[in-house]
């Protein structure tokens, strides 16, 4: 069967609102280490990992063996009505890593569900359905999480069940904060919170939810310390702080294990997903026991925290610790960031090279200004593919190239990917200028 047949069949039975990358979409059929192979036998270095989901690499023996051991027991699921040893062990690891005192964790199957669970406990604890969320954020594709997502291309179809007010946070190139000197942006964002609270809410708000670095939004980081500035205001009202660490968790930013640590403040609740399962459906919310216990009705999950996925999660966290992958993310990420800054940051058409650790982005604009150029980003994506490298796209305007390789990326692989990236960016910028 050709790739075209599969694409036609895909289009016949899957909804059109599920986007596919590339003019000719890729079918991946195998993976090993940091490389994947498509149905035509072409190999790619993978700098995107689905969307920052492949944290350790493909077909890693320690993880495969842990999953195979569980499969051999014949027990893949039981439901949370039974004791699950793997789940308890993973909960012990996650609560001790989270940095939140006296924490409890509830496992889910996706980041969307993790944020749903966080909203459930926060709204019950505070007896309020008023939520503060951030412009340009992404929190999931369910009813409530689309309602708190500040990114119209993802939310235009959601009819919001929550009362949400939107905050400025980390705009760097466009928007109100971007017009201020960098040193003034944090105070302005805190002032914005005060104003939004006073003018758009009753003050009786359940929570503020924010990503330490906006993922889907194009790897946009608020000023370090903003969560602490917000926290002072939130504490005056008893409002909870939720850190959505679905993309920023597990050491990906290199400098910290959690994104919130760049802000010098501990959230009340933290949501995680993606990397912890290294491809298995595993996510959750971890938080202060008094908040986590505030749901009055009983609840359970058929698949959340099942033996197979939590076996994978335990192996992933052990691997992460044994190989000090946070330090690797810092070291190898610096090769990429410095390399990109030295080669492409000054090109007309590149507005900014930014990021931390192995969460790196390049933002593309029309020559001579700041008008977003999604066509240029798409051109770079295609050129990278042709060169044997998979990367991602994102940002409010689709004009940001995103890189989130496995945290096991080696220095040689970083240099190999960098060379492909630089060549792809230079050739796409030249082609765009000639248009
Ligand atoms: N929060 C953030 C910050 C995300 O990036 C995502 C997924 N891109 C989600 C939540 C939702 O996770 P999932 O796709 O696993 O439902």
From TrEMBL:
Gene3D superfamilies: Aspartate Aminotransferase, domain 1 (3.90.1150.10), Type I PLP-dependent aspartate aminotransferase-like (Major domain) (3.40.640.10). Transmembrane segments: none annotated. This is alanine--glyoxylate transaminase. Pfam families: Aminotran_3. It is an enzyme of class 2 (transferase). Belongs to the class-III pyridoxal-phosphate-dependent aminotransferase family. Signal peptide: none annotated. Coiled coil: none annotated. Its cofactor is pyridoxal 5'-phosphate. GO terms for molecular function: alanine-glyoxylate transaminase activity; pyridoxal phosphate binding. Its EC number is 2.6.1.44. Keywords: Aminotransferase, Pyridoxal phosphate, Transferase. Homotetramer. It comes from Micromonospora matsumotoense.
């Amino acid at each position: 069967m050709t790739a075209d047949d599969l694409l036609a069949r895909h289009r016949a039975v899957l909804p059109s609102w599920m986007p596919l990358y590339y003019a000719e979409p890729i079918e991946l059929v195998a993976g090993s280490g940091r490389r994947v192979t498509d149905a035509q036998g072409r190999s790619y270095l993978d700098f995107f990992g689905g969307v920052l989901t492949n944290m350790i690499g493909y077909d890693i023996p320690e993880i495969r063996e842990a999953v195979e051991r569980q499969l051999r027991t014949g027990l893949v699921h039981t439901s949370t009505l039974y004791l699950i040893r793997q789940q308890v062990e993973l909960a012990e690891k996650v609560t001790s890593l989270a940095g939140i005192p006296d924490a409890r964790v509830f496992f889910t199957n996706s980041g969307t569900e993790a944020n749903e669970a966080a909203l459930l406990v926060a709204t019950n604890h505070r007896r309020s359905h008023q939520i503060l969320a951030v412009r340009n954020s992404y929190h999931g594709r369910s009813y409530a999480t689309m309602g708190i997502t500040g990114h119209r291309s993802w939310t235009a179809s959601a009819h919001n069940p929550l009362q949400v007010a939107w905050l400025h946070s980390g705009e760097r190139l466009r928007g109100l904060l971007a017009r201020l000197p960098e040193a003034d942006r944090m105070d302005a964002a805190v002032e914005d919170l005060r104003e939004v609270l006073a003018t758009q809410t009753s003050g009786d708000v359940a929570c503020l939810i924010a990503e330490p670095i906006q993922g889907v939004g194009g790897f946009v980081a608020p000023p370090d310390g903003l969560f602490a500035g917000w926290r002072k205001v939130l504490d005056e009202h008893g409002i909870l702080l939720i850190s959505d660490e679905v993309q920023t968790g597990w050491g990906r930013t290199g400098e910290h294990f959690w994104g919130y640590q760049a802000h010098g403040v501990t959230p009340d609740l933290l949501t995680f997903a993606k990397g912890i399962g290294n491809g298995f459906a595993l996510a959750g919310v971890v938080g202060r026991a008094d908040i986590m216990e505030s749901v009055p009705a009983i609840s359970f999950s058929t698949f959340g925290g099942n033996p197979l996925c939590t076996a994978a999660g335990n192996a992933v966290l052990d691997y992460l610790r044994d190989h000090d992958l946070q330090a690797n993310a810092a070291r190898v990420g610096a090769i990429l960031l410095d390399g990109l800054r030295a080669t492409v940051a000054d090109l007309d058409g590149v507005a900014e090279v930014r990021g931390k650790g192995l969460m790196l982005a390049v933002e593309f604009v029309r020559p001579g200004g700041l008008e977003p150029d999604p066509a240029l980003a798409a051109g770079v994506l295609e050129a990278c593919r042709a060169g044997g490298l998979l990367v991602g796209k994102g940002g409010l305007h689709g004009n940001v190239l995103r890189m989130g390789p496995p945290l096991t990326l080696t220095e040689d692989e970083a240099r190999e990917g960098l060379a492909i990236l630089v060549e792809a960016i230079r050739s796409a910028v030249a082609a765009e200028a000639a248009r």
